[in-house]
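Q: Convert this sequence to structure tokens.
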Amino acid sequence: MATACEYLWKASMKSEGYATKADGLGAEIDITGYTPDRIRNFSIIAHIDHGKSTLADRLLETTGVITKSGKNKQVLDKLKVERERGITVKAQSASMFCEHDGRKYLVNLIDTPGHVDFSYEVSRSLAACQGTILLVDAAQGIQAQTVANFYLAFGEGLAVIPMLNKVDLPTAEPDRAALQIESAFEIDAANIVHLSAKTGLGIDRVLPSVIERIPAPSGSIDAPFKALLFDTWYDKYVGVVCLMAIKDGAVRRGDRVVSMHSGTRYEVMEVGIMHPEQRPATQLQVGQVGYVICNMKSVAEAHVGDTFHKDKFSVAPLPGFAPAKSMVFAGVFPLDAGEFDKLNESIQKLTLNDSSVAVHKETSAALGQGWRLGFLGTLHMDVFRQRLEEEYDASVLVTAPTVPYRVQYKDSTSKYIQTPADFPTAIEIQDKVDAVMEPFVLATLIFPEQYLGAMLELCTMHRGDIHTHTYLDESRVMLKCRMPTAEMVTDFYDQLKSRSQGFASFDYEDNGYNESDLVKMEVLLNGEAVDALAAVMHRDNVATVGRTMAKRLKDVIRRQLFDIIIQTAANGKIVARETVKQLRKNVTAKCYGGDISRKMKLLNKQKEGKKRMKKIGRVELPQEAFLSVMTGSKE
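A:
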């Protein structure tokens, strides 16, 4: 039987009394006719750069949500940082209307990120879906994040539809990629949809597969209203906008709803769907995914994973989400101390849109007041910084990333260390500490067979323990190794791409803590410690890192009227030393001949003055010097 997904926005919807573009974009649409059996909620998951956003563009074109034009590139990637980097960092939702076997359906699509650092976005999006499309590049085959995302969806009990993208490429090997999917995930290769999102080949099979193979959402329109809040963002005109999955009942403008997390009551000002921008609706009901504006003005009031219900109608809370576990921490400080309050407000608004960031205030003797932020990875940290600068016009200094260590004391208590300043001293370690432990990750690497030796060497260099390596097919290997998180957040990813000529992919998951020989390396300027440059590391790395840091500081510190002694030390022992020589005035220039004692008298007087200056003079590192040291540049 022939199937078709056709655009019904102007013709069919208008015949049923729905608003169209001709009626004005501000008009409310009526979608109450779409009962749960005519709704499908699904997401697209894949490894980075496998074509998720391009497939979303074609689906939006097919259903008429956007017009067909060559300019439709990454329509759902709305952030500037996404368009600049060519990656998705924020899950976005869009509702589409289509027809299949003579019935009209409301299909809600959520486009998700592909990089491991944004896996929390994927897990939250899956909670609002009943199924997912697992997209695989036919030329590259299964990669690390493909495996991770599949098991994420599998663990949620979602229906998974495998699809092979880019089958039109000359280098595509769809049969080999299908065999990889079949062997890795035990999915029948006959059920795999072949398509090219760029050219539109096979796109007409996507939505019919979604409707036939993904179950309809459960719930009852007659039950009390209950909704899961799975995303939020801040609008300067209306305050906090909540994206919700309606599990039971219905909600419309004027209703009073309650947050189960805080118990606060709100009046609903507007409801609607993302199409792909906000489109007001008369009502949202069971099975549908849409936005709710409820006069929530403070960013502190919105909690992702919260359950909302109507006032005076109590319901059982939904499971919500496990809080994101920060893998790396970094200090964020304003370049201008007067911008502290503005930056504080900007961070609050941005963390509303990215709830996986942990925020704690911090004070540094060198950098002043700031924040200690927790991220899911170094790319996540860099994207957050870029969004602060571009979306909120903030000028910030971000310190080097650190990982959370755990100190086990002899009295059976333990403490998590997020900053080097909190790390115990050598005396405390000797007298009070039973063990110092560092976090580990279980890393999954997938790469062509010829790079096996280079990948084994790379993992060993970064203190990794090889667990297993298996062949996905005759040419691709999947390697699993356990390694310290601190090694992963330095230059591991760059070396991975360099040694594999860009062919290797990488994914990781938290794997607990292990005891390790860790020390705190301090940087001393004329005997005074600079807390912002301190770092915790393995004892084997102290000598190399210490010498590099001392040389780099020598290049960026300006000369003073006295010697500046730069030292790096660990456990009370000096590891490396550099000296920035003093600027000296030629005090003997006015002496034209005469006895040598005249010159010696002037030189000794200058020497005494230098001694007094060294006692009272302070070395202050400018912000530019911190930035140069932390980024590795010498400008």
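The CA atoms of residues 348 and 506 lie 31 Å apart.
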